[in-house]
């Protein structure tokens, strides 16, 4: 097949490489000339995606993948177009469709009869049919469902392990009509491989859902569940700190029973997905009080963590506090909705002097993000925000002068910190 992937970000590029590795001819479209140039040289524009370096180099060298800034030209002649362009939300959860609107208009201008269009960007329920079908029809002069197929198929992968997750989880596909759904199922069966999953009643592979709306809902539901679950254990952590119980032991005990699936508490919920998609769900269903309360509860954890530091020291007034990790999670160079931002603000609000360090970011990059980089200034407290592998063997010698460490991800060894106050969320104080 001739395939066009629109958006060569941390999900779109691995998808394009996956399709090319299956023997198809892929054109990746991206609005960034720098990204296009880098991809055409066979180099990934972002680090630490397992397997991407080797596969990208291979498919570019073989002529199976090329990149272009002209989306309309890339779409012209494609049998399938997969759109993976970001959708962001305002603080109140209102989605900003501007980037997707522009991408859709460019796709429509090059669309031809018989082509499949698949949206993988997480969307509010009803967007594929109610927004994109009309926009594609208007720009192409074609009719969705009759002249071209239109489906929603959510990405269900995690950056850093995209290729493994593509094999591990069923691919959900829902179209605006049965014909579109069949076309989408056939496409994804031709471009993906799946690991055996005897634990799944339907087996692993491409799963057809009844509609695009069902597929959109499934993506929002599975991600919102995680946010609600994390909010619950974060509230359990506060109670564990008050009553002197180690919550990790409690969670292990609970999860030994097959109907309990408690997650782990953490200092912040970051990334493009978990903090954002519950807001998209609320945009459709503003009466969902549980979802709203969970989102609000998770947003308060950074301030609570800084309060624990202040309580352990007596006061943070004038104290240097080092936030370890700018990235929203370990091993990923990305700061989308990272806990580093509210942590820095909470330290300032408590009278402390915040600094930030991260093994993936230079001083210049941290400064460009509006974060105060650590240049060796003395600090008396530290909070571990991102669980980078480099932090697992962290000890007091790495942070001279630090009297209190709050490990917000439980990735350090308490035994190494015998002479320093070592705190964890839900550790019992």
Structure description:
39% of the residues lie in helices and 14% in strands. The N and C termini lie far apart (59 Å). It is globular. Strand 11 (320-324), helix 14 (340-349) and strand 12 (353-357) form a beta-alpha-beta unit. The chain has helices at residues 12-21, 33-40, 52-61, 71-75, 98-110, 127-140, 162-168, 178-191, 212-243, 247-254, 277-284, 289-299, 301-313, 340-349, 363-368; strands spanning 2-6, 25-29, 65-68, 80-83, 88-89, 95-96, 116-119, 149-152, 171-175, 206-208, 320-324, 353-357, 381-384, 404-407, 421-424. With 429 residues, the protein is α/β, with parallel strands linked by helices.
Share in β-strands: 5-15%
Specify Rg, calculated over alpha carbons: 23 Å
- Helix-strand pattern: EHEHHEHEEEHEHEHEHEHHHHHEHEHEEE
Distance between the termini: 59 Å
Low-confidence stretches: none
* Number of H/I helices: 15
Strand elements, count: 15
Query: In terms of structural class, how would the helical and strand content be classed?
Result: alpha/beta
What coarse outline follows from CA principal-axis ratios? Answer: globular
Query: Could you give a short account of the major beta sheet?
Result: 8 strands, mixed
Cross-sheet strand order for the largest sheet = 3-2-1-4-7-8-9-10
Overall mean confidence score, pLDDT: 97
What is the topological layout?
Layout: E1 2-6, H1 12-21, E2 25-29, H2 33-40, H3 52-61, E3 65-68, H4 71-75, E4 80-83, E5 88-89, E6 95-96, H5 98-110, E7 116-119, H6 127-140, E8 149-152, H7 162-168, E9 171-175, H8 178-191, E10 206-208, H9 212-243, H10 247-254, H11 277-284, H12 289-299, H13 301-313, E11 320-324, H14 340-349, E12 353-357, H15 363-368, E13 381-384, E14 404-407, E15 421-424
Parallel strand pairs: 1-2, 1-4, 2-3, 4-7, 7-8, 9-10, 11-12, 11-13, 13-14, 14-15
Antiparallel strand pairs: 5-6, 8-9
Helix pairs in contact: 1-3, 5-6, 9-11, 9-12, 13-14
